[in-house]
Amino acid sequence: MLHEYLHALGEYSEVEVRRMVVEVAKKSFGEQYIATVVARKTPWVLLKDIPLGPFNAPKRLMEIVKDFEKTGKYIV
Question: What 3-state class would DSSP assign to 29?
Answer without folding.
Answer: helix
